[in-house]
Amino acid sequence: MVSTVMASERQRSALAKRVETIVANAPVFDIHTHLYDPAFRELLLWGIDDLLTYHYLVAEAFRQLDLPAEKFWSLTKSQRADLIWDALFVRHSPISEACRGVLTTLNLLGLEVKKRDLPSLRRWFAGQKFEKHLARCLELSRVERICMTNSPFDDLERQVWGKGFPRDKRFVAALRIDPLLLDWPRTAGRLAGWGYDVGGKLSPAVAHEVRRFLRDWTRRIDAKYLMVSLPPEFSFPGQTNGARLIEQAVLPHCRESGLPFALMLGVKRAVNPQLGLAGDGVGRSDLEALQNLCAGFPENRFLATVLSRENQHELCVLARKFRNLHIFGCWWFTNVPLVAEEMTRMRLELLGLSVTPQQSDARVLDQLVYKWSHFREILSRALTAKYSDLTRTGWEPTAPEIQRDVKDLFGGAFERFCGM
Ligand code: RAT
Ligand code: ZN
């Protein structure tokens, strides 16, 4: 009896090791980030000051600081980084996920964190050659390909696309269209300024011009999908400009170009505007809108992620009903170990391997290192638990089978869904 228990313990730990090694070494296609092709130069953030001023950390630092928000924003980036370092790493232990992430990154880059010496960390980063550092971060995170978030409404970004540049094959594009769907009156003015005939009320002729705009940008950036983030109260179908534009322009364009439409649901923008990018919040979404889209437009493919923990189970059930829906990522506030582990296990249990359980959402190049290292740990645990349930039935997953499964989870299933 004792020896049977020991034998099965040994088997379980051998399985855990095997899964861990496969997951740790599998290359990833990071399907949603805020990183840029190096041709965008300063838009591609990297280094210690950008790591420390990440908006996830800004939100946490504000809880410890008492200086007024205007004062904080009037400081230089390094001064803000100094304050955040002092508030979150020196005066308190950096145990939040975003703080821990900075330390994981520094540690894996080979830096000594225990000295708590910010000036020497800065000197190390100042001595790095960018191209080499990029290659190092990709190697450490095992990220092979990165999907950017590309907005034609961002003035800096639009200029770079306008001039043209040789594309770096490691970076692919996604067309982000929030202003089009959330602020039509202002966006119509901008489209008109760029030569699209969108004057007057939303009409079939205007929708036709919006489609022309989407087609032009899809081609210009070679977009792999279109995407939007929407507030919890988003509903569809509806008479809002956003709902009508989705139906009359976005979905026809996606059908015509064969691209999926990604919906990121549940963000409440500027709950506290004083915090800038760090001031957004979360709300529970009505997923009936997504259900109506999947059911009403079977010829379209939808990618979806939801920000509220309370929506996660419902989203999995929806994906069971509609094969034109692919769910992805532990997005933003859900990307903390407690929630990410729960979501990942739930998705595996309800959907098997037809999901993309994570995207990094990195805004700073170096964050790839910790975001993927932390998630690989979570995925290894979740997969080991599932495979060991199988072994108890006598079904033993082989190494090539585990590799195949992990490949699917790290971008393979996504690429197939998108027809890439
Ligand atoms: O996670 C983030 O960094 C957020 O600020 C958002 O950018 C979010 O990921 C989004 O794409 O809207
Ligand atoms: Zn994002």
Task: Describe it.
By secondary structure, the chain is α/β, with parallel strands linked by helices. The protein has 18 helices and 9 strands. The strands form 2 sheets. The protein has a 7-stranded parallel sheet with strand order 1-2-3-4-5-8-9, sandwiched between helices. Strands 6-7 form a two-stranded antiparallel ribbon. The longest helix is centred in the C-terminal third of the chain and has 25 residues, at 367-391. The radius of gyration is 22 Å and the shape is globular. The N and C termini lie far apart (52 Å). Bound molecules: D-arabinaric acid (RAT) and zinc ion. The site of D-arabinaric acid has 8 residues, from loops.
Number of helices: 18
Bound molecules: D-arabinaric acid, zinc ion
Low-confidence regions:
none
Number of strands: 9
Largest sheet: 7 strands, parallel
Order of helical and strand elements: HEHHHHHHHEHEHHHEHEEEHEHEHHH
Rounded average pLDDT: 97
List keywords for this structure.
420 residues; alpha/beta; two-stranded antiparallel sheet; 18 helices; 9 strands; globular; binds D-arabinaric acid
In brief, what are we looking at here?
The protein is of the alpha/beta class and 420 residues long. It contains 18 helices and 9 strands.
List the topology elements.
Blueprint: H1 2-25, E1 28-30, H2 48-52, H3 55-62, H4 69-74, H5 77-90, H6 97-108, H7 118-126, H8 130-141, E2 143-147, H9 155-163, E3 171-176, H10 178-182, H11 184-193, H12 204-221, E4 223-230, H13 241-257, E5 261-265, E6 267-268, E7 281-282, H14 288-296, E8 302-306, H15 312-321, E9 325-327, H16 337-351, H17 367-391, H18 399-418
Helix pairs in contact: 1-17, 1-18, 3-5, 6-17, 8-17, 12-13, 15-16, 16-17
The protein binds D-arabinaric acid and zinc ion (ZN).
